[in-house]
Design goal:
Family (chain B): Belongs to the IFI44 family.
CATH topology of the largest domain in chain B: Rossmann fold
Protein name (chain B): Interferon-induced protein 44
CATH topology of the largest domain in chain A: Rossmann fold
Shape of chain B: elongated
Organism (chain B): Pipistrellus kuhlii (Kuhl's pipistrelle)
Pfam family, one (chain B): TLD
CATH class of the largest domain in chain A: Alpha Beta
CATH architecture of the largest domain in chain B: 3-Layer(aba) Sandwich
CATH architecture of the largest domain in chain A: 3-Layer(aba) Sandwich
Number of helices of chain A: 12
Helix content of chain A: 25-40%
Strand order of the largest sheet of chain B: 1-9-2-3-4-5
Number of helices of chain B: 12
Largest interface: A-B, 65 and 69 residues
Strand content of chain B: 15-25%
Number of domains of chain B: 2
CATH superfamily of the largest domain in chain B: P-loop containing nucleotide triphosphate hydrolases
CATH class of the largest domain in chain B: Alpha Beta
Strand content of chain A: 15-25%
Order of helices and strands of chain B: HHEHHEEEEEEHEEHEHEEHEHEHEHH
Structural class of chain A: alpha+beta
Structural class of chain B: alpha/beta
Oligomer: heterodimer
Main location (chain B): cytoplasm
Largest sheet of chain B: 6 strands, antiparallel
């Protein structure tokens, strides 16, 4: 279950240890009892109290109750953050005043509540509110459940603290509140349902810990993104896993990647495959200093999981484009590629295109063999310095593609500020990104509409699983599949036209 | 805006190096920032209330030209006191002396002490005796610009060690039960290439030790030029529990060298599976089909499915231009054969400032990051393909932290091998599947 939500990171794989949690809870409860009993001698003030060694790693010390794996899961859930513990109810006094002394002016925080059978928490953006029973502070907050590795959306909350209670209101209703001196927590039923913990009825918590959250951008948009990013990514991945080509006209959509050497064509394929697999994958072709490797035409399909079936699309990789004549992909090869006449692993020659006499030439390609979408792949950082010769080459290529009627998208790679590409709900691109000069230039050069100028950051140099990168990669792939579907949908009419002619 | 600025400021002023030096000096701690005067106010009471009962506490003070402070081991509800460490940075080195005994509360009492902080006045007072010991300050009263306080926790505590042990078991299980992609082969062959002395044989021994349960030695370790290390060796490893072969074989060749060492023209033959176990390499002459032990019949089983270049992390800077060129050529030959290489960086635990506690988060350590970037720039490997391992050299028994590093790298190599197998041309896969069917038929026949 956890794996599906949080694919393994590069070197470490974490699984949510439920049994470990249960043992931890039981052990912790015993520790609490023992601590209570041993508190008496200290009250007598005889010899200095020396903690029982059994308490060393239990509740007595300022150490979180989270197991190491739970901490990792939580850090990932919150967007690869660091957590610094500074308040623990069993060590510091269970009072609002004491809690505030510790918690105010610490930056963004999470308050983690350990109930007997689950761990829940609240993220609060910015500083902890001040105590004032007559005043409610506006703020942003979201809630999470570690058992289900789930977060809620961001709430606009009004936080209010009086001498007994810390409460978060939304629409004038308390959705989350703490009464520290009674170790009580209230969670609104709709919030419980959203977190998947509606069957947990206990309101007495065992422990409350407050952490500062470090390593996040201090803006509201970022907070909104981290609450929805994993869910959206998983939904998008499921959608693409379940994708079927338009009217099942073909069993697979073939997407051709075209672009200069080093633009990220092979990296994009590797990134798509890595997203589906959940860990870094490698294809020998990646590594642009070994240029001869990509002289081959490759049709890559993606195994989904070890022996799973492949999603119904392939990514086709060619020799790179070069601005010089007689170097790079030969223009006369392109129609044959588009028509599906070039077989997998065919070795291109810059000077000599494939001919129908070639032994592996596919003489009667079907619709399934054709290219259904072309993606021009360019490094976004190189667009403004494209030479006029390369621009001319692109136009030459495009002319051929237009005459074959194949839909086109542009795929811009190496987008360093990829956090800013999408709006907060991930449904559309930000105008601040789509109005960049690079986008305008591509739109003008290739006459591609902006909604089909796609931006990604490949997993080329470093694999640290980032659901936002995944969303960009999967969204780009989805746009290509949509363009291909439009192409397929248009075919019957052309056939009809041909029939009447 | 003010709130945003304050948010941004809740971060230590210590550089990575200063923090690391302090962590190591205090015996492998990690620090959680609890108090910062410029955010929380220059107020002794505030410092006290935020830091009380937080466990061992570190106070760091920044004056106009010095960073210094106090480490207080006792900070809980009992009244015990203990010696404290007063320290100061001289450039990047730490000078220290013991003062006390104190606990966290007594450090703020107005009685004359060796060391006293007065946040309200933004000054620190140090006694003459202490001043002499530290040999760094000129005056007893020092103006401070900033004061930070941290909770100190062990980098390796029971909680983390439990997590490491669990992760180790998960990795062991995943590798024991690993099956190559579509069962095309029974065992993955991993070729280790690299300069002499990089740790190839040590890595093999370390991997074998994990599955054996104690540190063991089979491949001969040492950078000598004996006849043994000029051989091609294929090592299959049995699981210590089940005594069954594990699903991978580690293959070792003679090391790369500027002068002698592995002949680069041998690489394609090794990768395709023409070179038999125990073949004696000749640095001037590659194996040829005429050779008596040349393996003519090729199968998917016999070829190399993953290549790992092994380098000593401490030797990257000293690689000569000839060696760099040789490695690059070797890498290209490997890629031309369709295999995607990875890099194993050994001996990271001997790097400056790296301690055992760092191994659990090794990819985030600055020196290791820099080292990986150097390999990327110098030799051309992708950063994500540069893995870090920690070989057993002098130990007798296993360390779960080292095991996690080594097993994680091994699993990456198995995934790389899967990628290789999936990318094979269809006819080779079909051949392999046919041979699998034949095997199954034979089994059925024998059984009936």
């Amino acid at each position: 279950m956890t794996r599906g939500l949080l694919p393994a990171v590069c070197c470490f794989e974490f699984q949510f240890p439920f049994s470990q949690t249960m043992k931890s809870r039981i052990s912790a409860e015993l520790s609490v009892s023992r601590m209570f009993q041993l508190a008496k001698p200290d009250g007598a003030a005889c010899t200095p109290f020396k903690p029982d060694p059994a308490f060393k790693n239990g509740t007595m010390e300022m150490t979180t109750r989270l197991t190491w794996n739970e901490e990792k899961i939580l850090q990932k859930l919150l967007g690869n953050v660091s957590l610094s513990l500074f308040y623990k109810s069993s060590v510091h006094k269970c009072s609002i005043e004491n809690m505030l002394d510790m918690c105010n002016h610490q930056g963004s925080t999470i308050t983690v509540i350990y109930l007997p059978n689950c761990i829940v928490g609240a993220f609060l953006f910015g500083h902890y509110p001040q105590m004032d029973k007559n005043c409610r502070n506006q703020n942003y907050s979201f809630y999470f459940s570690l058992n289900n590795t789930r977060t809620t959306e961001v709430f606009n909350v009004e936080a209010q603290i009086d001498s007994e209670k810390l409460a978060f209101y939304s629409s004038n209703e308390i959705i989350f509140s703490l009464i520290p001196h009674e170790s009580k927590v209230f969670i609104h039923q709709s919030l419980k349902i959203e977190l998947g913990i509606q069957h947990f009825t206990s309101s007495n918590y065992l422990e409350c810990e407050v952490f500062r959250v470090e390593g996040i951008n201090d803006d509201k948009g970022y907070i909104r993104r981290i609450t929805g990013v994993v869910q959206y990514r998983n939904g998008l991945l499921a959608e693409l896993r379940g994708y079927r080509p338009y009217a099942d006209l073909v069993s697979e959509i073939n997407i051709l990647l075209l672009g200069p050497v080093g633009s990220g064509k092979s990296s994009f394929f590797n990134s798509v495959k890595s997203v589906f697999r959940g860990h870094l994958t490698r294809q020998a072709a990646v590594g642009s200093d070994v240029t001869s490797i990509t002289e081959m035409y490759r049709i890559y399909s993606i195994k989904d999981g070890k022996d799973g079936k492949s999603p119904p699309f392939t990514l086709c990789d060619t020799m790179g484009l070069d601005e010089k004549e007689g170097v790079g992909l030969c223009m006369d090869d392109i129609p044959h590629i588009l028509n599906g006449c070039v077989p997998d692993r065919y070795h291109f020659s810059p000077q000599q295109p494939i001919t129908c006499d070639h032994p592996t030439f596919i003489t009667s390609p079907s619709l399934k063999d054709r290219i259904h979408c072309v993606a021009y792949v360019l490094d976004i950082n190189c667009i403004n310095s494209l030479s006029s010769k390369m621009v001319a080459k692109f136009k030459q290529v495009q002319k051929i593609i237009l005459s074959c009627g194949v839909p086109q998208v542009a795929l811009l790679t190496k987008v360093k500020n990829y956090h800013e590409v999408l709006q907060e709900d991930f449904l559309n691109m930000n105008t601040s990104m789509t109005s960049q000069s690079q986008i305008k230039k591509i739109q003008k050069m290739l006459k591609i509409p902006i909604y089909n100028i796609l931006m990604v950051e490949n997993y080329a140099l470093e694999w640290e699983q980032d659901p936002l990168k995944d969303i960009l990669i999967l969204s780009a792939l989805r746009q290509m599949l949509r363009a291909a579907d439009d192409y397929l949908e248009d075919l019957p009419q052309r056939r009809i036209r041909f029939f009447f002619r | 805006m003010d709130s945003t600025n304050r948010l941004r400021n809740m971060k230590t002023r210590l550089t990575w190096l200063q923090e690391k030096k302090l962590q190591n000096h205090l015996g492998g701690k990690q620090f959680s920032l609890l108090f910062k005067a410029s955010v929380h106010g220059f107020c002794d009471e505030n410092l006290h209330s935020r830091c009380f009962c937080q466990g061992p506490t570190l106070i760091v003070i920044y004056s106009s030209d010095h960073v210094f402070g106090l480490y207080i081991p006792q900070n809980d509800k009992n009244k015990a006191t203990d010696s404290c460490l007063l320290f100061a940075f001289e450039e990047t080195e730490i000078l220290g002396c013991e003062i006390g005994p104190y606990n966290f509360t007594t450090i703020f009492f107005p009685i004359e002490r060796e060391f006293k902080i007065n946040l309200f006045r933004k000054e620190v007072k140090i006694s003459l005796d202490t001043l002499k010991k530290l040999k760094l300050f000129q005056h007893q009263i020092i103006s401070l610009e900033e004061c930070e306080a941290f909770r100190c926790e062990d980098l390796l505590d029971t909680r983390k060690m439990n997590g490491v042990a669990e992760l180790r078991e998960n990795l062991l299980s995943a590798i024991r039960t690993y099956k190559p992609s579509r069962d095309l082969v029974n065992q993955i062959r991993i070729l280790l290439l690299g300069p002499v002395g990089a740790g190839k044989s040590s890595f093999f021994n370390s991997v074998k030790s994990v599955f054996r349960g104690y540190v063991t030695h089979q491949a001969v370790v040492g950078s000598d030029r004996t006849g043994i290390s000029k051989q091609y060796r294929t090592y299959s490893i049995n699981d210590g529990k089940t005594v069954k072969p594990l699903p991978f074989i580690l293959c070792d060749s003679v090391g790369l060298s500027e002068e002698e060492g592995l002949c680069l023209d041998d690489i394609p033959y090794i990768l395709k599976g023409h070179v038999p176990d125990k073949y004696q390499f000749n640095f001037m002459k590659p194996i040829t089909p005429d050779h008596e032990s040349y393996i003519n019949f090729l199968s998917l089983e016999n070829r190399i499915h993953c290549v790992a270049f092994v380098f000593d992390a401490n030797s990257i800077e000293q690689l000569s231009n000839e060696m760099v060129a040789k490695v690059k050529k070797a890498r290209r030959k490997v890629i031309k054969c369709g295999v995607a290489p990875v890099v194993l960086l050994t001996c990271v635990d001997t790097m400056d400032l790296i301690t055992r506690g760092d191994l659990i988060n090794i990819y985030k350590c600055m020196p290791v990051k820099l080292k990986r970037e150097e390999v990327h720039k110098k030799l051309g490997f992708a950063l994500s393909d540069i893995l870090v391992v920690s070989n057993y050299t002098s130990e007798w028994n296993l360390d779960p932290i080292k095991d996690v590093l080594n097993l994680s790298a091994l699993r990456q190599m198995l995934w790389a091998a899967d990628d290789f197998l999936e990318d094979l041309p269809l006819e080779k896969k079909q051949q392999s599947e046919k041979s699998i069917s034949q095997k199954n038929w034979k089994k059925t026949n024998r059984w009936s």
